[in-house]
Write a structure and sequence with these properties.
By secondary structure, chain A is α/β, with parallel strands linked by helices. In chain A, 32% of the residues lie in helices and 26% in strands. Chain B has helices at 8-37, 45-63, 66-90, 95-117, 144-149, 153-171, 173-183, 185-190, 195-222, 233-243, 248-271, 277-281, 283-295, and strands at 132-134, 150-152. Classes of the chains: A alpha/beta, B mainly alpha. The A-B interface holds A 17, 54, 56-58, 75-77, 80, 86, 88, 92-97, 101-102, 104-107, 109-113, 154, 402-403 and B 171-177, 179-180, 183-184, 186-193, 303, 311-314.
């Protein structure tokens, strides 16, 4: 292994944004034909480093060596010429264009377009990868897993032999992840080198040959997978021991704070998504909703939040029929907190600053505004206070939310929703894209809320996570709850059966 | 009031006028469409028509030839495009603001300079223009023949520009890149496309096209220069782009429609001298507004239009 020559070497890479050092003297050696994982907290500078390698960000210092030769990569074109390809954390694709157009985009060729040959080759490549892709489908109509396949195809189409994958598994369902791993193994066997960024320790342990751990823009450690443990990785990554199993006292259950009675709703395409779904959440407990992605979880959360209308059934929040209340009234009057799944689109105003996002729903009322005047001083003070308590990593509260890393964006929503003292808290995939330290923090926060008497509805596709924090688990399948049990009686096997639609005898 | 619709000779007359009036719109709309497809708002079309008209007058006056006018008109258009590109693409100034600034500058600059350069003012010029080209046989077809096949060269150039813009955008590799840059510059950049270079090229070529609209007015219609000769055509062209949903062929038809209404209202002014002519003159604008209100909901502009690209911004 160690004898393999280095495909890529980084020496002392520095990248600054203003005065902030997102990468601070990063050195790295990636062996040819290996899977090299990069691990690190949210905001550690992983994506920044990858963007430097790919030529999208210009480094402020340091050297890059490709196959032992020093290179300057100031543009993605140069990266491609060196055989470097990248799938970005947020895909870079033209949604209105078709698969084939996206793949050939930017490639040289005859001016007059004739993509028949490309179509054929894309089909062939897709076959080799073991996936079915219609080259003429517009990108936006594809499920996210398929879009990712297209992104990978795009790299292979350009004959890339060093593949950079920035958090590829955070958008995939557990089944898709399995297929994806098979694909990665195949790519490694074909001699390609893979740089894999992920937050999931078990993925690193299963797949990678070596791992580099980053923290606060620096390399904290570089380890051989064979000589390390998940626990060690987690410790190096967050700089302290991470508690993997959280102890919690039995719940003190109160009155129902959420009652769903036979609700029915359709998805964005107008196809039935919820079919007479019923459930109850009581104050002081965490009800986990488990299920394979796409069984109505998203629609369920939106229906409760008032963002999706229901055609039948009844939703009651804190004993009151919610039908007459719009989303903002559900929050202010009915005392519901909501952490949406798509934080970038629904939960945050990315181009506003942190302070404003913290009061996104409350800035109109005292104490943040009086007689129609907004008190910016109070808003800032409030934000500084929350940022400290929720450990939000930033430069200042007047920074744009867009510039924060994903985990820190999530913490802003969480802080905002919890500060309102909700009686019901609906959280959808709250740990997606978060590092282990941040996940632990989110879980602790939710448990603390529960201990104060808040009822929590916790929707997630991470089974392990739900088994850890939920008091009760309900399995959602095809828009219905088909099983319900206390967490103490739940096992992965039992839930696994239910999740695929098989009722328990 | 609508008698002219029944009489074939009068009808041909109105149709001919309609085509003539729509030509500047077509030039400007195709130019603006190219800019917007690449992700740059060009609301300066009005000013660029004016620059083109002025440039045409200057060129034709000093070189004593219509072709000289054409060259200078294009040079003025390209220069105004370069200005828009430097400010709106490289320096990332708000493109709407830049557009308005260019219009205001064009208005002042052309009025002032025409008094300075042309003895007796632009109105007293008698410039060399382009004459009509009769296409043999076809121009003899009754009614339609003279309308379609007995026009000056710039008319054919305008119609050709529709095909050209459509062909480039949808049938060539550069065109695909242009569309990608207008939709998602970040994706295009990551795919290895020169985002800035393409935007510059589109804006400069598009602005030159718009200037041809002005050259057409001066070199084929009036053969002189008068202040504010563009008279709102650039704004109508903007409406045609939206109505045309950023498709050259539909935008072309929208231009023809606006031209037709303009011709009809001119005819009605002429027929109804006792009604104040302003009532009729407002007609094309009214149609533009109504058409936009009626169809606005379905229009989807290129997603990144008006947003300067910055690679290191998230
Ligand atoms: N374009 C930018 N402008 C300003 N600051 C930036 C920019 N990009 C990143 N940063 C900052 O640099 C730091 C590193 O960000 P980066 O996206 O590399 O983190 P990451 O390790 O990929 O995190 P995550 O796991 O959440 O994706 C963050 O603090 C972020 O706020
Ligand atoms: Mg990242």
């Amino acid at each position: 292994m160690t004898a393999a020559p280095a495909r890529l070497t980084l020496e002392g890479i520095v990248k600054r944004f203003g005065t902030f050092r997102a990468n601070d003297n990063v050195s790295l050696k990636i062996a040819k034909g290996s899977i090299h994982a990069i691990l690190g907290e949210n905001g550690a500078g992983k994506s920044t480093l990858m963007n430097v390698i790919y030529g999208l960000y210009e480094q402020d210092g340091g050297r890059i060596l490709s196959n032992g030769k020093e290179v300057r990569i100031t543009d993605p074109r140069e990266a491609m010429a060196l055989g470097i390809g990248m799938v970005h954390q947020h895909f870079k694709q033209v949604n209105t264009m078709s698969v084939v157009e996206n793949v050939v985009l930017g490639l040289p060729g005859r001016q007059i377009l004739n993509l028949d040959e490309d179509r054929r080759r894309i089909k062939e490549l897709a076959d080799e990868l073991g996936s079915e892709i219609d080259p003429d489908q517009p990108m936006w109509t594809l499920p996210i897993g398929t879009q990712q396949r297209v992104e990978i195809l795009k790299m292979l189409y350009r004959d890339a032999d060093l593949l950079i994958l920035d958090e590829p598994t955070s958008v995939l369902t557990p089944t898709e992840i399995k297929a994806f791993f098979v694909l990665l193994e195949k790519l490694r066997e074909s001699g390609r080198t893979i740089l894999l960024i992920t937050h999931k320790l078990d993925e690193v342990m299963d797949l990678a040959d070596r791992v580099t751990v980053m923290r606060l823009g620096r390399v904290e450690a570089e380890l051989e997978i064979a000589n390390t443990t998940p626990r060690e990785l987690a410790r190096v990554m967050v700089g302290r021991d991470v508690v993997f199993d959280i102890q919690h006292a039995p719940p003190k259950v109160g009155d129902p704070v959420l009652e769903l009675d036979e609700i029915t709703a359709v998805d964005d395409r107008g196809i039935g998504a919820l079919h007479g779904l019923s459930l109850t959440v009581r104050g002081g407990e965490i009800l986990g909703i488990v299920g394979i992605d796409g069984n109505g979880q998203g629609e369920l959360a939106e229906a409760i939040a008032g963002l999706r209308s229901i055609s039948q059934g009844r939703i009651a929040i804190c004993g009151q029929d919610a039908s007459g209340f719009d989303p903002s009234e559900r929050k202010s009057v009915l005392k519901m907190g909501y952490v949406p799944e798509d934080r970038q689109k629904v939960g945050l105003d990315l181009d506003s600053d942190i302070a404003f996002n913290m009061v996104l729903r409350s800035f109109r009322a005292p104490p943040f505004s009086k007689y129609g005047w907004i008190d910016f001083k109070k808003i800032r003070a409030h934000a500084v206070d929350l940022a400290e308590r929720y450990d939000i990593r930033m430069q200042s509260v007047s920074q744009r939310v867009r510039d924060l890393s994903g985990g820190n964006q999530q913490k802003i929503i969480l802080a905002r929703e919890i500060e309102d003292n909700p009686k019901l808290l609906v959280v959808a995939q709250p740990t997606k894209g978060l590092d282990v330290g941040a996940i632990e923090f989110v879980q602790r926060t939710l448990l603390a809320q529960r201990d104060q008497g808040t009822g929590v509805l916790y929707i997630s596709s991470e089974l392990e996570e739900l088994l850890l924090v939920a008091d009760r688990l309900a399995v959602i399948f095809k828009g219905r709850i088909i099983g319900d049990m206390p967490a103490s009686e739940a096992t992965s096997e039992k839930l696994g059966l239910l999740m695929t639609g098989r009722e328990l005898a | 009031m609508f008698d002219f619709l029944i009489d074939p000779v009068q009808l041909a007359n109105v149709l001919g006028t309609a085509l003539r009036l729509s030509i500047p719109l077509i030039f400007a709309a195709m130019g603006g469409l190219l800019c917007e497809r690449s992700g740059v708002f060009n609301i300066a079309l009005e000013g660029q028509i004016l620059f083109g008209a002025f440039g045409a007058a200057v060129g034709a006056f000093y070189f004593g030839s219509a072709y000289g006018g054409l060259v200078i008109a294009i040079a003025f258009g390209a220069a105004s495009g370069l200005l828009l590109a430097v400010l709106g693409i490289t320096l990332r100034v708000n493109q709407i603001v830049v557009g308005i600034a260019i219009i205001l500058f064009a208005t002042g600059f052309t009025s002032f300079m025409s008094r300075l350069l042309f003895p007796g003012g632009g109105n007293s010029l008698k410039l060399d223009g382009f004459s009509n080209i009769d296409i043999p046989l076809l121009s003899d077809i009754p009614i339609l023949g003279p309308v379609l096949f007995s026009q000056n060269g710039l008319v054919y150039v305008a119609i050709f520009s529709v095909f050209a813009v459509h062909f480039v955008l949808f049938r060539t590799r550069v065109g695909m890149s242009i569309r990608a840059v207008g939709e998602s510059p970040a994706a295009a950049d990551a795919a290895g496309i020169h985002v800035f270079a393409l935007r510059y090229a589109c804006v400069i070529i598009g602005s030159s096209l718009a200037a041809l609209g002005g050259a057409y007015l001066v070199l084929t219609q009036v053969l002189l220069f008068s202040d504010n000769i563009s008279a709102g055509k650039g704004f109508i062209a903007l409406a045609a782009i939206v109505l045309g949903r950023w498709q050259p062929s539909i935008a072309f038809m929208a231009c023809l429609l606006f031209g037709l209404f303009d011709a009809v209202q001119l005819r009605m002014q002429f027929d109804q001298p006792d009604i104040p002519y302003q009532v009729f003159a407002a007609l094309p604008y009214l149609v533009a507004i109504l058409a936009l209100v009626g169809l606005m909901g379905q229009a989807n502009p290129p997603s990144s239009v008006g947003r300067p690209y910055d690679r290191e911004m998230r």
